[in-house]
Amino acid sequence: MRMIKDARTRHIIKLFLDMLLLSSAFVFSFIIKFEGDWGKYFKIKYVLHFLFAYIILNLVLKINLKSWRYMDSLDVFNIISTVALSNILYVLGIVFLNLAKFPMGLFSLLIIFEIGFLLMGRYIIRIKRTLMSIQRKRKCEIDKTRVLIMGAGEAGEALLMEARKNSDFKLQIIGLIDDDPEKKNMILHGKRVWGNRFDIPRLVDEFDIREIIIAIPTMRGKEIKKVYKLIDTEKVEVKILPGYNEILEGSSYLNQIRNVKVEDLLGREIIDVNSKEVANGIEGKVVLITGGAGSIGSELSRQVAKYNPKKLINIDLNENSIYFLELELKRKHPNLDIISEIGNIREKEKMEYLFKKYRPNIVFHAAAHKHVPLMEHNPEEAIKNNIFGTKNIIDLSDKYEVERFVGVSTDKAVNPTNIMGATKRVVEMLVEDKDTKSKTKFIAVRFGNVLGSNGSVIPLFKKLINERENITVTHPEITRYFMTIPEAASLVIEAGIMSKGGEVFILDMGESVKIMDLAKNLIELSGLTLGEDIDIEIIGLRPGEKLYEELLYDVKSAKKTENKKIYIAKLDDKNEMDNLVYLEKLEEKLNSHEYGRLKEIMKKMVVTFKEPEEVNKNNCEK
């Protein structure tokens, strides 16, 4: 009620100010027209008659309901229209009601003054408010972090525009830098482009810069590293606007500025996904994902959800993770029919119940034990879960006539040196074998380590850094191939949709990365100094661990697909497929708890399975 009264009071005050301005316009018109004799011709009733007409029109058209502070071109038009109509009514009153003998030759001058005074009054209020806002902003900026934006392109301009509109923006933008020489000294939304990246040290000292925002979504990791070398990261924090493939549509750029992650420094290329083909393959389908709460499974769920499936079923044993994933997906996709099921892929009866209940069209199988040293210590668990659990899902996909089964494999299946990798190779063999006997299209997709996944070295390194404990690396020369979780998931989905059945797809992982370099990059990103704040310890290779991961494929022999990041492996494994007969032996040893014999049988099934000591020795000799 009080707000309504306040609003009415403001409207009355604005109407009173208009009457005062219009009265002044009358006086000035008579003074200009008649100079010293204006008092002889001016009568107060002229003003009163006109104001009566203006008040009536003002109440009907409600022009003073709009804030004077935010006056635009439409408001100017409304004022001109109201003044014109008021004068027309006034003239009609003079002619037909004989209200007053007004000097008709004065009307053109009067209208100009009326419009001018009304607009001037509004602009004075607007200018006053703007000056007060600038003054408040300057006072606030004393405590704001001084920022330099790198990139005067589309993203940099968008940041500036949003910063101007957002009164709660916590940063003070000093200006921009850009490597395009033609942009130097250009003014962009009131901010100057001061130079290029090599001017950063000078500008940091000159303007006391405390933060640099990289607003170039296409910038590669190598370029970001070069920028880092120009910055004293102990004094200046570096943040980044994510790549176009990560930017959320419809969301503010300001809200998406984040700290630079180690993934940004790896120089991964932007992944192009055939979204139209993927959408056609998923839209309206029932999609089931095993391991749906895991690193890969949850990202598969997020990306599948974007393509409007009829139903999305997530299966996992981790009740907390799957619950929070469901909340996230329902929040982002309120119309999505998502179902979370707690279950173990080893329990065929429960899995069959779910397949019979939901009748999935597409199955993404991401459930697996992946931790190499732990699986070396518990080979029976790797075999139960990765082989026999997967076999359950494969057999049920065939029985319930699933259209596509997509199994997630690993680069460790290539010439495996550990139980985990060997079990994954058996999974590929099961997929290829079942595809020859089923109407369902069975495929497997291989890729390497995933940055940020639960089993990745990154979370471990970050934890050690936060605790100020030395980072542990198994060998100074150890290398791995890495891919981000969203990249891997998007390519797995596309490979599954493009498959004809029976293929083992392999994802291009780019260049291998030294784990030692990864550790150093993380230390630098954390603002610490290697050798002073924290150190790196070499602890030796773990059980089943290779020194160098082998390429997923032979570039010369692998078959290309439409997506340059996805290949089809040419595997000469016809004889190896016959070794699936050893599954019975494996099951027999599991049932009799003869776990010491499992590795021996696995070597008979997977003929490329060798001990890591032999492989590492050969690699060192090379």
Automatic annotation (TrEMBL):
Pfam family, one: Polysacc_synt_2
TM region positions: 12-34, 46-65, 77-100, 106-125
CDD domains in UniProt: UDP_invert_4-6DH_SDR_e (cd05237)
Keywords: Membrane, Transmembrane, Transmembrane helix
Coiled-coil regions, chain positions: none
Entry keyword Membrane: yes
Residues annotated as domain Polysaccharide biosynthesis protein CapD-like: 287-570
Similarity section: Belongs to the polysaccharide synthase family.
Protein name from the UniProt record: NAD-dependent epimerase/dehydratase family protein
